[in-house]
Amino acid sequence: MSDLTAVDVAVSPETKFREYLMTQGMRLTTERETIVREVFASHEHFDADQLVSRLNQRTDGKRVSRSTVYRALAQLKDSGLLRAVARPNDREVYEHDYGYPQHDHLICKECGDLIEFVDDSLNEMLSRVAAQNGFRISAHRLEVYGKCANCCRPKRRQRKTDMI
């Protein structure tokens, strides 16, 4: 779970998704609404399998097929409500792109851990570089790959007494 707090938005994710679907000639079905509510129930990074698992654990009887989840995730991404942030282990990991502050990521290549951070000096540096090049920034996305603190720790050697 991230330490970042959600940003107040005037329109709910369900309403934004309904508006997007209308522009595509589609409607917000009960299944799509269930998916949007589950996705925006908490801010955590997730992949499609984790979302399917969470939806299957619901006790309200609202079931959604795996294929509907995959299609809805693509639509949520196209609508600007979600974005894919990383691809550890060949799986797409998503996060909210609506109602959440601008932030960047540190991604551990060993364990796949995602660390969110905000650094104003980074924004200042990007603004300075953009100004030097006559470039207007509309958004940025930074993903830094490496090893997290846990993975950098030296591995404990197994002693003969541990094997007894």
From TrEMBL:
The keyword Coiled coil belongs to this UniProt entry's keyword annotation: no
Cofactor: Zn(2+); Mn(2+); Fe(2+)
Molecular function as annotated in GO: DNA-binding transcription factor activity; transcription cis-regulatory region binding; zinc ion binding
Pfam families: FUR
Presence of keyword Transport: no
Record: residues binding Fe cation: 104, 140
Manner of cofactor binding, per the entry note: Binds 1 zinc ion per subunit.
Alphabetical GO biological process terms: negative regulation of DNA-templated transcription; regulation of secondary metabolite biosynthetic process
UniProt-annotated binding residues for Zn(2+): 108, 111, 148, 151
Subcellular location: Cytoplasm
InterPro entries named among the record's database cross-references: FUR (IPR002481), Fur_C (IPR043135), WH-like_DNA-bd_sf (IPR036388), WH_DNA-bd_sf (IPR036390)
Gene Ontology annotations for the cellular component aspect, listed alphabetically: cytosol
Keywords (A to Z) from UniProt: Cytoplasm, DNA-binding, Iron, Metal-binding, Repressor, Transcription, Transcription regulation, Zinc
Oligomer and partners: Homodimer.
Family stated for the protein in its record: Belongs to the Fur family.
Name by which UniProt lists this protein: Ferric uptake regulation protein
Gene (name only): fur_2
